[in-house]
Amino acid sequence: MKAPDESAALMLAFCAGDGAAFDALFSRWAAPLLRYLQRMLRDAAGAEELVQEVFLRVHGARQRYQPEARFSTWLYRIATNLALNELRRPRRREPHASWGEPDGPELAGEGSAAEDALDAKRLAARVERELARLPERQRAALCLSAVEGLSYAEVAEALEISESAVKALVHRARTALAVRIGDAERKDG
Amino acid sequence: MVDAASDCRDFEADLSALLDGELAPERAAELRAHVAGCDGCRGRLAGLARVDAALAGAPAPAVPASLRARLEARLEGAGQADTRLRRTRRAWRGRAAGALAAAATGAALYLVVATREPALAPAQPPLDRASVPEEDLGLALEIETVEDLDVIANLELLELVVAAEAGG
């Protein structure tokens, strides 16, 4: 078995009664979890609620935690299960139509740096919008792999599917986004 | 012979895995060699990489300070609920243990009566079922409440009374 990772070591310290280790885990993982859950739910407030839920479960697991997988894999499995459950709730409110729109005023100026920044911002917003339209498992697989840095084996564990299924999901998701972005850009001229 | 189009189809499914560093070294080298000589696959790979750049380029959301505070409040609430649950469980376990002990006592008394009955039988006149209310005869067999246990505890005395009445 691989040596426990740094976060797993923190979790073990927390299990042994070190409360500061839990604080360190929160500081390390709250932002990536929030990013992942915002992309899964397309709802900032709902994502914050689920981040709390994830850490409540981490806290509650202190008497039975075993570092059998990387800590991040375990954490994202909890987050993914919570997100998928939330998405399947029958009376879940729909995300706002503006989800993925860029925040704030557009950058002014005609300089190439400003234009590049504006293009990057537009592209990011477009990708977020298209990401939100993907089936939930494709979205989860792509986010975990391309953004959160999990290997296919770790994504497979987090999503409780096979590695070959992860490979197919990630490829389908990435290809769909690339095609849709290309189409939109051609339409914009 | 494999034509260029089917070559591309063979490689296309692995383009994402190439970006993710998930291919075996030999397969990755094969794919890179193909991409280097194929405009179509090079364009597709660039399109996929652009998606990643856009996803990774989005700033990570700031974690509101209130989120930590809300988590603390929920952890505290969960801790209190846990304590209440543990107390309730202890109380119920205590009651269950008491009831179990009472039931065991009752059952033991019943067994004593049941096993002693044949030995007593020759010295006593047989019970006349007709003279004993049906509910009294079946009493010891149905334990539904704690009060039933008191009845079972006095079963021997009740039977002696019934036997004496029957004997006149």
Give a written overview of the molecule.
The complex is a heterodimer of chains A (189) and B (168). With 189 residues, chain A is mainly alpha-helical. Helix content of chain A is 72%, strand content 0%. In chain A, helix 2 (19-41) runs antiparallel to helix 3 (44-60). Chain A is globular, with a radius of gyration of 19 Å. With 168 residues, chain B is mainly α. Helix content of chain B is 75%, strand content 0%. In chain B, helix 5 (65-120) packs parallel to helix 7 (146-153). The A-B interface holds A 26, 30-32, 34-35, 38, 44, 48, 51-52, 55-56, 59-60, 120, 123-124, 126-128, 131, 142-143, 145-147, 151-152, 167, 170-171, 174-175, 177-179, 181-182 and B 13, 15-17, 19-20, 22, 44, 47-48, 50-52, 54-58, 60-64, 67-68, 70-71, 74-75, 78.
What is the residue-mean pLDDT of chain B, rounded to a whole number?
71
Flag low-confidence runs of chain A.
104-108
By DSSP, the count of extended strands of chain A is 0
Largest sheet of chain A: none
Annotate the secondary structure layout.
The complex is a heterodimer of chains A (about 190) and B (about 170).
Chain A: H1 6-15, H2 19-41, H3 44-60, H4 71-88, H5 112-133, H6 136-147, H7 152-159, H8 163-188
Helix pairs in contact in A: 1-2, 2-3, 2-4, 3-4, 4-7, 5-8, 6-7, 6-8, 7-8
Chain B: H1 4-12, H2 15-19, H3 25-36, H4 39-57, H5 65-120, H6 134-137, H7 146-153, H8 155-167
Helix pairs in contact in B: 5-7
Features:
heterodimer; A: 189 residues; mainly alpha; 8 helices; 72% helix; globular; B: 168 residues; elongated
Summarize the structure.
The complex is a heterodimer of chains A (189) and B (168). Chain A has 189 residues and is mainly alpha-helical.
